[in-house]
Amino acid sequence: MLATQNPVDQEGTYPLPEAQVDRFMLKIVVDYPTKAEEQTIVRRMATTGEKPHVKQVARPEQLLSARKVMDEIYVDDKVLAYIVDLVFATRRPAEYGLKDLAPSIRYGASPRASIALTQAARARAFLDGRGFTTPQDVKSIGMDVLRHRVIASYEAEAEGVTSTDIVRRVFESVRVP
User: Which domain holds residue 94?
Assistant: First the structure.
């Protein structure tokens, strides 16, 4: 499932509870396009004629097959320990040398985060054509997996500290075992 959220147009909409947000595997932040990108968008879309045709690139059975392959991608115990350490650091920051971060976290990431981070690291390895995951796979996708699962405290929000800031600190501090 794919959902979009436009923070500019929230009239008549309500934020999802944390438990529901946690069910989304990733939160990808898409910024405005560059001038060149926007010009390309306008050239393609600012017409009343026929819109560009979407070409199928994969059949459903190919996607199901790829999912089975991803389940076979190897996750070493050290990579798995790193994933769990990252998630635990959002719940118990003091145990990971982040005592000063504790007051900024209202809720840390749930066990779903560990599962999603493992799946996303496997997907990253798959896209790179590898049969094994690396800590870099975890780091490259980790922000997208964790930013919506770590809830900043009211005090942190008042000081301008975001969930993204918290997750960035966790990644900077937690080391690969």
Answer: 73-173
115-133 residue pLDDT tens: 999 999 999 999 999 999 9
In this prediction, residue 44 carries a pLDDT of: 84
Residues in the chain: 177
Encode pLDDT of 139-168 as tens digits: 999 999 999 999 999 999 999 999 999 999
Whether 21 maps to a domain, the answer reads no
The whole-angstrom separation of Cα 91 and Cα 86 is 9
Closest CA to 115 of 146, 139, 161, 143: 146
Q: Is 18 exposed, middle or buried (0-12, 13-18, 19+ CB in 10 A)?
A: middle
| Tally of domains within the chain | 1
Find out whether 166 and 104 touch, Cβ atoms under 8 Å: yes
Q: Which residues of 149-171 are buried (b: 16+ CB within 10 A; e: fewer)?
A: bbbbbeebeeeebebbbbbebbe
Between 161 and 30, name the one with better pLDDT: 161
- Would you say residue 31 lies in a domain? no
What's the DSSP call for residue 74? B
With vertex at residue 3, the alpha carbon angle to CA 65 and CA 124, rounded to the nearest 5 degrees, is 40
